[in-house]
Design a protein that fits this description.
mainly beta, Maltoporin, Chain A, 22-stranded antiparallel beta barrel, 6 helices, 38 strands, globular, transmembrane beta strand, TonB-dependent receptor, Plug_dom_sf, transport, TonB_box_CS
Length: 657
């Protein structure tokens, strides 16, 4: 009966979508005029040779979401494994990559956490400050970092994107809301400009006592209560400024603070002793200096991130505490050699440190040098070739090539790309729990002897615009990977580089899985339909197919933990006095269960979220909204044991002044 309901709902939504409206937050002919940074050379989307999506500031305000990870869920090729809603924690994958193989940038600087990629979604900006998000699928290692395997998510804020002029203006946008289970939400930002100075800031909070669930550990663990809550307290504060010294010189700076306290039960382990709670803090600072001329442009970007993590696995055991630091810089120089030929050369470096009670004290440095060349080869064919020489203390020196081709015509655009990427294990994969004596079974264990992952990806795609308001996009890709890093169920008797384990017990041990191959298809159909009195309908259907194989046959934890089929729908009506937007997802994946912790990943499930917005006073100025998260109250998990919230209703006030 459950499967029949799911199929019926999906069929109805599909029929509605195909007979109504538009490519929401995606590649449309209008968005094709936007320059994106798929490489370090700004290029029109249709000429980039890459599969690109754009999410604008207006899209963010319209969607029924409260965090960036929820916003990305509906895009083709992007898969999320969430442990809670409202941005608490989610692993972001692209094209079936692991969560550690996606590069997240804020205003040109990577923010991937050096402790663990589980924290990559701890983005140090409020959503109200975001001008747009560029999602570039496929390897981008030569331009932005050797480990950009699945793709990059580039968040660009309003102060970073907007140029300066001599006008005086002020704007503010955001929302404040309340909901069930003592939920309190705020996301507010402002942007001001006075002559050559721009300044912006933002605040984002998500606080709740959480929903209540039965505790599988009750009666098995002495300290365990009969129930537990998935409570959370997330707070982010940001401030940025930019000053245009002259027509050529511009200085930009940003500082952000992110603090999170949340229940982390079964977030990382399948242990019956897991009663985890976690607290994280991070401070992010960034400085950018740019010089723009008629033929040359130079950009220097520097960033520093300091983070701390307090992880309490069980009240009866000591907490693990970690302090990390990450220094990043990039220097890029672009040259317009002529109208058809553009060159970019540069360097990028990172230094990461950790002091940890369970991982020890370590540091790691890497530096890369790259060259990118973009040329109009024929009247319609444009090619971009790039190469990177990367040195990392973990794997030595590697050569990383990348090439893309674009053939845009009036109503259709063909594209293809190929690239190599390499990724070394992070501090958690190499050292987690290595300093803990008598480690309990079922927990993760790091491996200092890990080799670096190497991946090659090729894709082919076509974007079709048969008439105004209709977009059809299809992409097929194939990735082969060697030495992929994942946690496999391993008996302690087979682990030779640790003497802190219980005999003949099973652990999730970080291992180089011999190799993996992923084939995927990404499809999009979007239709726009304008109505009278500035009203319109728009809808979008996105479908992603992923098939991952591994010759070794190891039971890994994350490599194949992605949906095999992911069908999403976006439906929206925008009227004179009210708007309605819904996002829905039909997901089919490999089922998994672990009865000891009530862990169950279903083979298929259907999710739907809804936002209704009323504007009784002034259009697009002040409005009242109601959001329903998990409208159908679906019972599901995406990480084994981490129970996702059921239906959750909230309402509030939204403004754009």
């Amino acid at each position: 009966m459950r499967k029949l309901q799911i199929r019926t709902c999906s069929l109805v939504l599909l029929l509605i979508t195909l007979t109504t409206s538009s490519a929401f937050a995606q590649i449309t002919m209008e968005l094709d005029s936007i320059e994106v940074t798929a490489t370090r050379i700004p290029t029109l989307i249709k000429e980039s040779g890459k599969s690109v999506s754009i999410i604008t500031h207006e899209d963010i305000q319209a969607m029924p979401v409260t965090s960036v990870d929820e916003l990305l869920q509906s895009l083709p090729g992007v898969n999320l494994n969430s442990r809670n809603a409202f941005g608490v924690q989610a692993d972001i994958g692209m094209r079936g990559s692991t969560f550690a193989q996606v590069l997240v940038l804020v205003d040109g600087i990577r923010i991937n956490d050096p402790l663990t990629a589980h924290f990559n979604n701890n983005i140090p900006v409020s959503m109200s400050e975001i001008e747009r998000i560029e999602i570039i699928r496929g390897p981008a290692a030569t331009s932005y970092g050797a480990d950009a395997v699945g793709g990059i998510i580039h968040i660009k804020t309003r102060t970073f994107v907007n140029g300066s002029d001599t006008t005086r203006k002020f704007s503010s946008s955001g929302n404040i809301g309340y909901g069930e289970h003592s939920l309190f939400l705020t996301d507010a930002g402002f942007h001001g400009q006075l002559d050559k100075l721009q300044i912006s800031g933002g605040i984002k909070t998500s606080i709740s006592e959480g929903q209540t669930f039965q505790n599988p550990n009750f009666g098995q663990v002495e300290s365990a209560d009969q129930t537990y809550r998935n409570d959370f307290n997330l707070q982010t504060y940001t401030l940025s400024a930019a000053y245009q010294f002259s027509d050529k010189w511009r200085l930009y700076s940003r500082v952000g603070f992110d603090e999170r306290d949340f229940s982390a039960k079964y977030f990382y382990t399948g242990s019956t002793f897991d009663e985890s709670y976690e607290e994280t803090e991070s401070v992010w600072t960034q400085l950018a200096l740019s010089r723009t001329g008629e033929m040359h442009q130079t950009d220097l970007n520097m960033g520093y991130r300091n983070g701390s993590d307090y992880f309490l696995f069980n009240p009866a055991l000591p907490a693990n505490e970690h302090t990390t630091g990450q220094y990043a810089f990039s220097l890029n120089h672009g040259i317009n050699l002529d109208n058809d030929l553009r060159l970019s050369i540069g360097t990028q470096g990172f230094h990461k440190t950790i002091e940890s009670t369970d991982r020890g004290n370590h540091e790691n440095s890497s530096i890369g040098f790259y060259t990118i060349l973009s040329k109009q080869l024929t009247e319609h064919l444009k090619g971009t070739a790039s190469a990177r020489l990367e040195y990392d203390e973990n794997f030595g020196t590697e050569f990383l090539p990348q090439v893309s081709l674009a053939y845009p015509l009036e109503n259709v655009s063909f594209r293809s790309s190929f690239g190599k990427a390499i990724r070394a294990g992070d501090f958690t994969e190499r050292f987690v729990s290595t300093q803990i004596k008598d480690l309990s079974p079922g927990r993760n264990l790091g491996n200092a002897d890990l080799e670096a992952e190497t991946s090659y990806t090729i894709d082919f795609g076509v974007d079709i615009y048969p008439y105004d308001g209709l977009t059809i996009s299809n992409t097929a890709f194939y990735r082969t990977s060697d030495n992929l890093i994942d946690y496999t169920v391993t008996n302690s008797n087979s682990i030779s580089n640790s003497d802190k384990l219980q005999p003949d017990a099973e652990y999730y041990y970080a291992t180089n899985v011999s190799d993996s191959r992923t084939f995927g298809v990404e499809s999009l159909i979007g239709k726009y339909f304008a109505l009278a009195n500035s009203r319109f309908l728009h809808a979008e259907v996105n479908y992603t197919y992923l098939y991952t194989t591994n010759d070794a046959g190891d039971v890994s934890k994350y490599i194949a933990n992605h949906p095999k089929h992911d069908l999403s729908f976006i439906l929206s009506y925008q009227g004179e006095y009210f708007d309605v937007t819904s996002t829905s997802h039909l997901i089919k994946r490999n089922s998994e269960s672990l009865s000891a912790i009530n862990g169950r990943i279903q083979s298929d499930y259907f999710l739907s979220h809804l936002k209704v917005e009323a504007m009784p006073f002034s259009k697009n100025r002040v409005s009242f909204y109601m959001k329903v998260h998990n409208l159908l109250d679906t019972d599901y998990q995406e990480i084994l044991g981490a129970q996702m919230p059921g239906r959750w209703v909230m309402a509030g006030l939204q403004w754009n002044i």
